[in-house]
Amino acid sequence: MPAPRSTRRTPPEAGEPFAVTECASGLGLRLERDGVPWCWLLPEGPPAARGPALPAVPTGQGAVAGPSWDSGRYAVEQWTDARVVVALGGRRLRGRHVLARLPDGGWRVRALDGPAEGAPLVPMLATPGELPPAAQDQAWGYEFKWDGVRAVAVVEGGQLALWARSGTDITVRYPELSRLPSALVGHDAVVDGEVVALDARGRPDFGALQGRMHRTGPEVRRMAAATPVTYLVFDLLAEDGESLLELPYAQRRERLDALGVAGERWVPTPWFRGGGPAVLAASRDNRLEGVVAKRLDSPYRPGLRGPDWRKVKNVRTQAVVVGGWRPGQGRRAGGVGSLLVGVHDDAGRLVYAGHVGTGFTAAALEELQPLFTPAGRPPFADALPREVTRDAHWVVPELVGEVAFAAWTADGRMRHPSWRGLRDDLVPEDVVEEW
């Protein structure tokens, strides 16, 4: 397959669009490069995990037509006549992939760093709610809620792999965490925790973390030295090959404390048996996001959002899916003025949740617009008011962000939302109303 003879490294946020379509012979992959489509037929589908390469049949610049299976943006790591390495940022297909031409002229596609066979579990999630009643307080443990990126860490043979909640391997983004605490030298373990950027007072600063979340290029090492992150550890899921998932939360925490993983950029978080109101008050006094209450006898249920874990927030935040934008005025003229965002309802439909026009830095606005994939119509299932649609630019609902807001209105809109930043650790389908 003829291809441009060039090699280029591009940060994911400045990437170009890709699409995967359904067809009678499998799936078709379309990479748009400098306005030109390059396409492959994937008769056995794309590789979803590290493993054997699968066949890829080049179709030149002829698009493989059919219903959309996935879409998003991709970054080029290498592009030659015989080898194309890209980082895909779709809803279903994510991570670095290589398309390579074999000596016999055939092509193969292989995932380089996507979720692999034996990859860690999807983290257990907490349900939004209130503190347990006073009569049940002693049956619960309490932790502070940290304002960062959830990550499961796997330590095997002295090597670290970090996985986001979305299933993305994020190890390369935080190289400073690969220096393991001495307690893990010679041991294997799987732990659950949060990657945070701490301010001068030792409090999580989500804004500071934003500059690190999407970076995978050569600038990562420099950023890690200038603004290192910290890994706050709050659960032990496996130790030297022994699964601890069925153990009660209290026992897992005791095992974590005994293991002693403090050191380098790793910090075990405090936890408290009972005393929920006092822990919540302390979180407010220290301007933290809130607390997570966990039943002392609860096992670890990967991927489950159930009643055994409750998150009680001091500040209302909400993950949102970006479905469009409205142009700005004044100093924002010609660019993004506000974002039109939504969440999924109980039926799985994306419904409109309001527009966000505050909280943006100049850098955030510059970062956003190149990420949009234009769409011909609104992605929201519900009817929108005329004042919203008259000048709206619609986009494919593939970007997830986070906002702070005052309250939900009676018609399902967020009151006074303020933009906090992108969340590429979440996939759009997971975004539902949290309050």
UniProtKB/TrEMBL annotation:
**Biological source species:** Geodermatophilus africanus
| The family this protein is said to belong to | Belongs to the ATP-dependent DNA ligase family.
Query: Is Protein transport found in the keyword set?
Result: no
The UniProt catalytic activity note for this protein reads:
ATP + (deoxyribonucleotide)n-3'-hydroxyl + 5'-phospho-(deoxyribonucleotide)m = (deoxyribonucleotide)n+m + AMP + diphosphate
Among its keywords, does the record have Ligase? yes
Which controlled-vocabulary keywords does the entry list? Ligase
The organism's superkingdom is given as Bacteria
- Enzyme Commission code(s) on record: 6.5.1.1
Gene Ontology biological process: DNA recombination; DNA repair
- Pfam families tied to this protein: DNA_ligase_A_C, DNA_ligase_A_M
What InterPro entries does the record point to? ATP-dep_DNA_ligase, DNA_ligase_ATP-dep_C, DNA_ligase_ATP-dep_cent, LigD_ligase_dom, NA-bd_OB-fold
For this entry, the protein name equals DNA ligase (ATP)
Q: Which residues form the ATP-dependent DNA ligase family profile domain?
A: 227-345
Cite the GO molecular-function annotations of the record: ATP binding; DNA ligase (ATP) activity
